[in-house]
Amino acid sequence: MKLVTYSSTKGGIPSIGVMVGDGIVDLPEASGHRLPATMLAFLEGGDAFMDMARAAVAAAAPRPLAEIRLHAPLPRPQSIRDTISFEGHMRFFKERTGRPVPDVWFERPIYYKGNPATVIGPDDDIRWPNFSEKLDYELEFGVIIGTRGSDIPIEKALDHVAGYVIFNDMSARETITYETGGNLGPAKGKDFDTGNVMGPWLVTRDEIDPSDLALEARINGEVWSRGRSSDMRWSFAQIISFISQSETLHPGDFIGSGTCEKGCGAELDRWLKPGDVIELAVEGLGVLRNTVTRA
C-alpha cells in the first residue's frame, strides 16, 4: 500500500488514506472509523491495523486527487536519524576536508539526529535559511519503523519496518563544512525550518525490496544525480540492528539511508538557486517535488 496523510484542497483537518489508482481512499471513513486519522496512531496499531486497512480499501471508492493535498506521510516523526551509508558520499568527505575517511565509518553505521519539527511534504516550499549562501539537496530514501523493539538481530530487522519513503535531507553546505571542524556537527547546517522533506507517500514493506533501487535527482527537469541503493555499504537491516542496541526503536521513528554518490550539488559543484524545482525519484517510491524559495 501507498499510505498518505492528506487534507482537502478546501482545508480542514488532515486524515490518512491509501493511494488507489488515481485517487485516495480515506482509511477512517472506509473502516467505519475503526482506524485512526493520524499516521502515527495508525503505525502504533501494527500489523492488525495494516490488515484492516487492506480490507477497507478493497471495498471503498477513492476520492479524486484533484480534491486533495498531500502532506508528509508522517508529518512529525517520533525521531529522525540519518546515516552515511554510501561509501561514494563518504569519499566526498575526504575530498572536502583533506582528511582520510575515518576508520569508524568502516566499523559501524554512524548517524546523526535531526529535528522532527522541521519536516515538510510534497509540493511544500523549501525556505532558504537566512544564514546560508549554499543550500543543497541530498538524494536519499529511508525507513519508518512500525514495530517496537530493542537489541534487534539483523535477520529480523526488516520485520520492524512499516515502509519506505523518499527523503530530501536539505543542507546549508558551507555551514556544515565549518561546523564539522569542531568534531561535533552537523548542527545548524542541518537544523532549519523545512530542512527535512519526506514523501510523497509511505510504501509498505511488502511492496519494496530496498536492496537495488534506482535513485535520481532532477533540478528544473534536468538530471543532476543518479544512484542505486545497491551501493549502500550498510544495509537497513544492519543499521536498524546497530541503532537498537540497548535502545528501543518505536513506531514512527525515521532512519535515512544517507546520500548516494554524487547525490548532492556539492559533489557536482552545482548549486541551487531560489525558484529551483527539486524532484527526487526513487524506484517504487514515486517522486518528491518541492520548490526553493527565498524571502
TrEMBL record:
Residues 89-292 form the Fumarylacetoacetase-like C-terminal domain. The keyword Hydrolase applies. Signal peptide: none annotated. It comes from the Bacteria. GO terms for molecular function: hydrolase activity. Keywords: Hydrolase. InterPro entries: Fumarylacetoacetase-like_C, Fumarylacetoacetase_C_sf. This is Fumarylacetoacetate hydrolase family protein.
